[in-house]
User: Fold these one by one.
Assistant:
Number 1:
Amino acid sequence: MERISLFGAALAAMCLLPVPASADAANGERLARQWCANCHVIDGSGPSARLPQGPPSFRVAAGHLNPGELRAFLSHPHGAMPDLALSRSEIDDLIAYIEGLH
């Protein structure tokens, strides 16, 4: 039980962290096109919104999730998301790219 509490506390702490200034949005876009475009709409191109995965568009994510929520989700994918095992810097880069779409 204590282990679950520590995990929850760690996730909550991640939600408070801003995107580092060193994050590379261009690399985030490259990663999005490499790993995410098969299931999500990236800049108006990609699969149609009929896919059950969500959000169907990165613009939707940019408008509804803050950087901390994105970080928590990308650190521990769930649902239909594959476990991409992204590094912290790759997650920050993806978040910087998504935030740039807002």
Number 2:
Amino acid sequence: MKLGNREFDRIVKEAIGRIPQEIRQYLDNILITVQKRPAPDMLEEMGYPPDEPLLGLYWGVPLSERTVGEPPLYPDTIFIFKEPLEEMCTSREELQDEIEITVVHEVAHFLGMSEERLAELGYE
């Protein structure tokens, strides 16, 4: 599946709108950006192999690791990687579902949310 950037962005917005408020409330202070693919240096810094089909990535300091004395230097960011998502999905609906799941999992990294809680919310 291959979409134009505007259509992909529209699907991202729709997917984010479906996220439960319990999680979506934390997106107010997180930048969400779409890129074609992860940069090689980004993969290297995160410890992923160069050919990793990464769908999304949280880049920042999780709440559980923050201190008052050392606030984060950069805004928390969730990267959505367009091409890997398009490659794995065969329909608009599947793409929207995968984007929603990806964003929720990245927000969970920010919050330090357990896999059990994600499963309770239907995001296994």
